[in-house]
Design brief:
5 helices; 105 residues
Length: 105
């Protein structure tokens, strides 16, 4: 996993500006952040671009510009990462846990 020196509020701000459920993101990230400290280290759902996600999985990618977008991982993910200057990625399921409200939509 990728080690990034970001504060929780920075991560929440980045995601909240791009996804329309900021309260869900904030609650989940607080749990992840706290769990990391319980285990003696901070844990991050983000992966380096050298790691490949499973084909077809819904991922969130961050570009060199800082912008975030979600993709379904294609079979040629390394080329897509290179073509779009992706600096890191995470499984969407690791960032946002489904709620009953989001399932019924």
């Amino acid at each position: 996993m990728l080690k990034i020196e970001m504060k929780l509020k920075d991560i929440v701000r980045l995601l909240a500006n791009r996804i329309n459920q900021p309260h869900v993101i904030e609650c989940y990230l607080r749990k992840v952040y706290a769990k990391g400290y319980e285990n003696g280290r901070k844990e991050s759902p983000w992966h380096e671009v050298s790691e490949e996600p499973k084909k077809g999985e819904h991922i969130c990618v961050q570009f060199g510009s800082g912008n975030l977008i979600s993709w379904y991982a294609p079979s040629n993910i390394r080329k897509a990462f290179e073509d779009h200057n992706v600096i890191r990625w995470a499984y969407v399921s690791d960032l946002i846990k489904p709620t009953t409200q989001s399932i019924n939509v």
